[in-house]
Design goal:
Number of domains: 2
Low-confidence stretches: 1-38, 334-341
Structural class: mainly alpha
Shape: globular
Radius of gyration: 22 Å
Strand content: under 5%
């Protein structure tokens, strides 16, 4: 039954893509027509299809959200004590300061990327541009942070193991990939709805719609879509950033707050607030209307992590979110691409 509901949700999420297909009614049930007016479809640009999808988006999100809420309630997650009934992570063997220390080690490793690159004089002698050097530093920083993050994860996992074998939430496996993808599909309606609320608040207060590209990385990709250095830079945002940020925020910071508050929901909410705040206060801050979206990503990743107790699940969800943003930018600018591509 959950897989059936998940399939329905997925169908509702992607259903706007079929907006150019005629819909008929058979015994009161909507079905897709077998005959499609190919002429009208050929005359539509990608931008026209995209605008049609945007028009249908609120309705699709509303129905999807209702189905997701029904599924989560049926599964017990939204009921009182839902986390406790599913089994809380056993981190009793570790004090909160250990989690904060692990987060500090990862951030320290990431910040040392620029210093490490600077030690190699031959890199500076290659005549790289400022952006190319920035890409190199960013890539090295992510690699160092991932090494430190997974190293601390290994240490914590060995230290937190107890005799009764309860899951401490430090496990990683290939099964995390499909589970994380499924969790992202369930979380997407909530993430997008909060994003629309942020855009609505901006429009009402500023008298104009916000810029559709809210992150600097996406702007760089839009300006230079065919530059291989840009592809490497964007690849770091899709792969490196989710790994590092989920290890720091979901595993370590959220773990420390779970020790303090003894409540999964409180630790998830406070970590999500901090997660969104950091994105606003970073050297390349996101606009304030994007904060609800980032908070929603943190909240859903936090819930999925506490529910599955698998590190790879929120990482996969975060990767899917970043990749989706890149794909949306590619689709929205598809009309500018060369003919035949």
């Amino acid at each position: 039954m959950p897989m059936l509901v998940l399939g329905v949700v997925l169908g509702l999420i992607v259903s706007p893509a079929s907006a150019g297909i005629e819909t008929l009614s058979l015994d009161g049930l909507p079905v897709l027509a077998q005959v499609v007016d190919s002429g009208s479809v050929q005359n539509k640009s990608v931008g026209d299809v995209w605008n049609t999808m945007k028009d249908l988006e609120p309705y699709t999100l509303a129905v999807s959200m209702l189905l997701v809420i029904a599924l989560l309630f049926a599964g017990g997650l939204l009921r009182p004590g839902g986390f406790a009934k599913a089994g809380l992570r056993d981190i009793t063997a570790l004090p909160a300061v250990v989690f904060f220390f692990a987060a500090f080690v990862v951030l320290l490793a990431q910040s040392s990327g620029a210093s490490l690159v600077g030690q190699f004089t031959w890199v500076n002698e290659q005549g790289y541009s400022d952006f190319q050097m920035r890409t190199i530093v960013s890539t090295v920083s992510y690699l160092l942070a991932m090494i430190a993050g997974f190293g601390m994860l290994f240490i914590l996992r060995r230290s937190a193991t107890t005799g009764d074998g309860l899951d401490n939430g430090f496990g990683v496996g290939f099964l995390d990939l499909p589970v994380g993808l499924g969790c992202f599909l369930l979380a997407f309606p909530f993430i997008r709805i909060l994003g629309l609320l942020g855009e609505f608040a901006y429009t009402q207060t500023q008298g104009q719609r916000p810029d559709g590209i809210a992150h600097e990385t996406l702007k760089i990709f839009t300006d230079n879509p065919n530059d291989p250095w840009v592809m490497v830079f964007v690849g770091g945002a899709i792969i490196g950033a989710p790994i590092v940020e989920e290890l720091v925020f979901r595993v370590y910071v959220q773990g420390a707050l779970l020790k303090w508050f003894k409540s999964p929901w409180l630790s998830i909410i406070f970590t999500s607030i901090l997660f969104a705040s950091i994105h606003r206060l970073s050297p390349q801050p996101v606009p304030w209307f994007a904060l609800p979206t980032i908070f929603a990503v943190g909240l859903t990743c936090g819930v999925a992590y506490e529910r599955t107790k698998r590190v790879g699940v929120p990482i996969m969800m975060h990767m899917c979110f970043n990749l989706l943003n890149v794909l949306i930018v590619m689709m929205s600018n598809a009309d500018a691409a060369p003919a035949g591509v």
